[in-house]
Design brief:
Blueprint lengths: L4 H17 L2 H8 L3 E4 L5 E5 L2 H22 L6 E5 L5 E4 L4 E4 L47 H12 L8 E5 L5 H16 L3 E5 H13 L3 H9 L3 E5 L8 H16 L3 E6 L11 H8 L2 E5 L4 H15 L5 H10 L4 H18 L5 H13 L8 H12 L3 H5 L5 H18 L3 H7 L5 H15 L3 H15 L1
Parallel strand pairs: 2-3, 6-9, 6-10, 7-8, 8-9
Antiparallel strand pairs: 1-2, 4-5
Helix pairs in contact: 1-3, 4-5, 6-7, 10-11, 10-12, 11-13, 12-13, 14-16, 14-19, 16-18, 17-18
The structure holds adenosine-5'-diphosphate and magnesium ion (MG).
Adenosine-5'-diphosphate binds next to helix 5, helix 10 and helix 12.
Length: 467
């Protein structure tokens, strides 16, 4: 299917607008492989690369697309969404025209089975072969706007592994449900298709590789990771800077990918933000589906707590859950932790939980304000660690981009979270002027408005500082 130059121009104009209205990840996920056809009656057909993508455009983005198209061409009345069939085509991304090779269509002939129906598991055990824990299921996962994309992508993979999204790359901060989703997807694939799944972490992968080199058993290592149907690697960010591991992982990846085996990866940050990740791996990771998980809103946090109570078979009044959810906003593991604390202490006392008793149980946990002023060293340490630079560099006169950004972020955090004065910040960083500190804060503040990756960076660095 080919667009005429007019259609191409119309779609490029609209995409330029759409790009401003949606996040960068969503834009590249949903609009990259799309085309537009204009019919004589003024109606439009948008072609998406697969069914899932088409549904998402239609259900989530129809209004945005229609508004953008009508702004470019008032005669447009309505839009239909269809799946493109075959061929290579070029599409605009708003700035440039890129040539994309269309991925094979998802196979339609695979059995469609219901997703995993596992209740809360009675054991915490991991299956020895797959490293999967039956505790994690889609059913026990609460969906909110912060994770709906990641959840939908996992479900799509669980229904059609190896085709729809390969690799699937999930990223998000600590305790936000990445491992849960990865494990749930693995469990569903094993249950529904009898797939040979292997769940690992990048640290486990690295240590097994090292051991196998030492014992001269690398062929066993290779077959373990290559003779499977689905490879799940959690927390891939720890592969950064490890050349040999990256090399081995690259070959493992290619082998599995060439056989249409599903690969699912998680990270605390998007591929672009993983320092010292080889370009060839980065482009592999970005070549499939990248979905983020952000912080859940208050309602979702309450819903998660309700789900946990349901699983534990306990009833707790809404005010208590509301109270916990209000105080723990950034980490679902901590949310669960606070709930468990209330339950445990209450069980000891043998009374029912009231808002007052919950408050008193949690008073020590919640009393320390989330963002108490922290020592400057801690901020610098977290920033340097995150960006993988050494301390002396952040205080140096270096104007290198890789140093300037972390330095500005550190200044920004000291100002925002610690309330340090500009002169203090300036002089702490190698005797700089207060205007340098002001400029740094303004710059980061400005960029935060549009830069998703920077937003993510700051969230993760704050997690490191305040954890
Ligand atoms: P991460 O891997 O991102 O650090 P986890 O997947 O380990 O986070 O999640 C931390 C805890 O929170 C787990 O016990 C998990 O089951 C729970 N959890 C996270 N997100 C959800 C959710 N949306 N619904 C229910 N439980 C969740
Ligand atoms: Mg995890």
């Amino acid at each position: 299917m080919n667009q005429t130059p007019n259609e191409k121009e119309l779609w490029m104009t609209a995409l330029g607008e759409i790009e401003l209205a949606v996040s960068r990840t969503n834009f590249s996920t949903w609009f990259k492989n799309t085309e537009l056809k204009k019919h004589d009656d003024g109606s439009i057909t948008i072609y998406a690369p697969n069914i899932f993508n088409r549904e998402w455009l239609e259900n989530k983005y129809n209004t945005i697309i229609l508004t953008a198209l009508q702004r470019a061409d008032v005669s447009i009345t309505n839009i239909r969404y269809e799946v493109a069939v075959g061929g290579n085509y070029s599409v605009g991304n708003g700035n440039s025209t890129i040539l994309l090779s269309k991925k094979p269509q998802a196979q339609e002939n695979q059995p469609q089975q219901p997703t995993a129906q596992q209740g809360p598991a009675s054991t915490e055990e991991y299956d020895a072969t797959s490293n999967l824990n039956a505790r994690y299921s889609f059913d026990s996962f609460v969906i909110g706007s912060h994770n709906e994309l990641a959840f939908a992508a996992c479900q799509a993979v669980a229904k059609k592994p190896g085709n729809t999204y390969n690799p699937l790359f999930l990223y998000g901060g600590v305790g936000l449900g990445k491992t849960h989703l990865l494990q749930a997807t693995g469990n569903a694939l094993m249950k529904n298709f009898g797939k040979n799944v292997l769940y690992s972490t990048s640290e486990k992968f690295t240590s097994e590789l090292i051991t196998s080199i030492g014992r001269r058993t690398t062929s066993n290592f290779k077959s373990k990771y290559r003779e499977i149907d689905v490879l799940i690697v959690d927390d891939i960010q720890f592969i950064a800077g490890k050349e040999k591991t990256q090399d081995e992982f690259f070959h493992t990846f290619n082998e599995l990918y060439s056989l249409n085996k599903q690969i699912i990866i998680s990270s605390d940050r998007p591929p672009k933000a993983i320092a010292t990740l080889e370009e060839r791996l980065r482009s592999r990771f970005e070549g499939g589906m990248v979905a983020d998980i952000s912080m859940p809103d208050l309602e979702t946090r309450v819903a998660i707590l309700e789900k946990k109570c349901e699983q534990k078979g306990v009833a707790i009044i809404r005010e208590v859950l509301q109270y916990i959810a209000t105080h723990v906003a950034h980490n679902i593991r901590e949310l669960e932790g606070a709930l468990n604390r209330v339950l445990a202490i209450n069980q000891l006392n043998g009374t029912t939980i009231t808002l007052d008793s919950a408050k008193s149980i949690l008073s020590t946990t919640f009393e320390t304000p989330k963002k108490k002023a922290v020592h400057m060293d801690k901020v610098v340490e977290a920033v340097c660690g995150y960006y993988n630079i050494v301390h002396s560099e952040i205080f140096s006169k270096s104007r290198r981009k890789e140093i300037v950004r972390p330095r500005q972020v550190a200044m920004y955090l000291l100002r925002k979270d610690n309330g340090s004065s500009f002169p203090t910040i300036g002089s702490s960083f190698g005797g700089r002027d207060h205007t340098t500190a002001m400029h740094a804060c303004e710059k980061i503040e400005g960029e935060l408005e549009t830069d998703d990756i920077l937003q993510q960076d700051i969230i993760l660095i704050r997690q490191k500082i305040y954890a």
